[in-house]
Design a protein that fits this description.
The protein has 254 residues and is α+β, with helices and mostly antiparallel strands. It has 3 helices and 9 strands. The longest helix is centred in the last third of the chain and has 29 residues. It has one domain: Alpha-D-Glucose-1,6-Bisphosphate, Chain A, domain 4, CATH 3.30.530.
Length: 254
C-alpha cells in the first residue's frame, strides 16, 4: 500500500538489490562530527530501538497533505524533503543532519528547547532511504521507541501527497505518563508543522489530515527499565551540571 512504512530490516526478506537503501549492521550509534554549539547527548553509543523494545501502548500516527497544483512528482518531493529537512522543522528545535545528508545509517542530532529543559538532546538514525521514502529509527532514551517514515505518492486523482507515518511506543514509564498531558500534542504539532512547511515550499497549502490508531493497548512492563536511558532526565542533569564543566567542553557523549 502506498505510504506504508518499510518493514524492519530483521523482519524483511528483501532482494539484495535493496541492500543499498538500508542501514547496515549498526550496533551502536556514532556521531562523526558535532556542529559548533550543538549538544551530543543521549545518542553516542546508544542502540536504536523499535516498537517491540518500547514500554507504552503502541500507536500508528499518520499525517498527510495534498500538494495540489504544485506539479511536483513524489520523487521530487522526497528529494527536497531529505535535502532541506531541518528547514521544515519546528521552531525552537534544531535538527542537525550530518554533512553527508540523510543516507542510510546516517545519524542526526536533535537539540530541542522543550519546556523545563533547554538542553533536551536526542537524535535519530536513518534506517531506510530510497527515491520515494525515508525512515528514521529512534535511539534508547528518546521519547519514543519506533520508526517514522516520510513518503510521497500520487493519489487516485493524480495529486501528489506528502505523508509522515509513525509506529511508536513511549520508551519508558515516565514518557508514557507524559503522553496524554503533552507528548501527543507535541508530536501532532511537529509533523503538522513539517508538512505545512513542505507544502509551502512547493507553493501550495491545504489542511493536514491526521489519523491516530492504537495498535496495541498493552504496556510492556518488561521494558520499564528503559527509564535508565531517559533522554529528558539526562538532559536535565546535563543542564544542572553545565556550570561545573570546563568551557572548552563541546562534545558530551552521554
Amino acid at each position: 500500500m502506498a505510504g506504508q512504512p518499510p518493514q524492519p530490516k530483521e523482519n524483511l526478506q528483501k532482494n539484495p538489490r535493496d541492500a543499498a537503501y538500508w542501514a547496515q549492521g549498526v550496533k551502536a550509534l556514532k556521531i562523526s562530527e558535532v556542529p559548533e554549539g550543538a549538544v551530543n547527548l543521549n545518542v553516542e553509543g546508544r542502540r536504536v530501538v523499535g516498537p517491540l523494545q518500547g514500554f507504552g501502548r503502541m500507536w500508528q500516527k499518520t499525517y498527510r497533505i495534498p500538494l495540489e497544483g504544485s506539479g511536483a512528482t513524489p520523487a521530487e518531493v522526497v528529494k527536497v524533503w531529505k535535502e532541506r529537512f531541518p528547514e521544515f522543522w519546528m521552531p525552537g528545535n534544531r535538527f542537525l543532519a550530518p554533512k553527508g545528508g540523510l543516507a542510510p545509517g546516517a545519524v542526526a542530532l536533535i537539540n530541542s528547547d522543550v519546556p523545563g529543559s533547554r538542553w533536551f538532546s536526542t537524535g535519530v538514525m536513518v534506517l531506510y532511504s530510497d527515491e520515494e521514502s525515508f525512515t528514521y529509527m529512534t535511539p534508547e532514551g528518546h521519547p519514543f521507541s519506533g520508526w517514522i517514515t516520510f513518503s510521497s505518492y500520487a493519489d487516485d486523482e493524480g495529486t501528489t501527497v506528502a505523508q509522515a507515518q509513525l509506529i511508536i511506543r513511549a520508551n519508558d514509564p515516565l514518557y508514557e505518563l507524559m503522553m496524554p498531558v503533552g507528548l501527543h500534542r507535541i508530536e501532532d504539532r511537529t509533523w503538522q508543522h513539517t508538512l505545512r512547511s513542505l507544502a509551502s515550499y512547493f507553493g501550495t497549502g491545504g489542511k493536514v489530515e491526521s489519523r491516530v490508531t492504537c495498535l496495541d493497548p498493552r504496556r510492556q512492563w518488561s521494558q520499564a527499565g528503559n527509564i535508565r536511558y531517559n533522554a529528558l532526565i539526562w538532559s536535565m542533569i546535563y543542564a544542572v551540571l553545565a556550570p561545573m564543566r570546563p568551557r572548552r567542553e563541546r562534545k558530551p557523549t552521554n
